[in-house]
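Holo prediction. Input below; ligand is magnesium ion.
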Amino acid sequence: MTSRGEGDTFTAMSNKRAMVSMQKVMLRYPTGKTALSGVTLDVLPGQFVYLTGESGAGKSSLLRLIYGAVRPTSGQLRVQNVDMRKAREAQVRDIRRRIGIVFQDHKLLFSRTVFENVALPLRVQGWTADRLVPRVRKVLEYVGLEDRLWSYPEALSGGEQQRVAIARAMTASPPLLLADEPTGNLDVATARRVLDYLVGLNRQGTTVIMSTHDLHLLESHPGRVVRLHAGALVGDEA
Ligand SMILES: Nc1ncnc2c1ncn2[C@@H]1O[C@H](COP(=O)(O)OP(=O)(O)OP(=O)(O)O)[C@@H](O)[C@H]1O
Ligand SMILES: [Mg+2]
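Structure of the complex:
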């Protein structure tokens, strides 16, 4: 993994135990738009974090930073103890294999079956069929879709597709799962069910960071609430 100079001031300041550690992170897009300004936040292993804030507050941008899809313009960001400002592409790819994502803009592959969609992260890691097939069956069973293995995504409802996306995100047992409004566009009952799966994963030890507009979800599943407003962190309550 990465080598770190012990004299590095940030190393001294940051919490090495944190799953995600941000200090004064600023993100400016090439358009000149500042999406995040001075965000300082530590997420510890095992936490369930709701990321809230108005449309345009910077929720998706913050998740993209953690995933390494964009890099901080300034400030410090460590994900699973890798410095994301200095990480090489190969290191970023390595980190991504240890992060499950349920993103609005990471849709399922419509030309592949449910089975193949969920198997993808394991194929990337070189799993052979003898281990891969039972694992894919197990995660699809977990989200209640074991009878839809050979369906194509277009034959599934929106909520079912979202459950396939969750199954895909959890298939390689990542220590960290990022979900960007995973319950958006779902009816209340389906949204609760999707959240139940994420909470279940969290109970098994996965750290979850989930953006949402729907704070009703908190009534059934309390968690830490991090609030963004216009790119700044304005609230953080356990
Ligand atoms: N790729 C991009 N290039 C330029 N500006 C962007 C880009 N993506 C987002 N922005 C801008 O950055 C700001 C934060 O956007 P972001 O998508 O992070 O907000 P959000 O909190 O996820 O909003 P929503 O709830 O609508 O999904 C917004 O002003 C947005 O217009
Ligand atoms: Mg968003």
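The two ends are 32 Å apart (CA to CA). That is the main takeaway for now.
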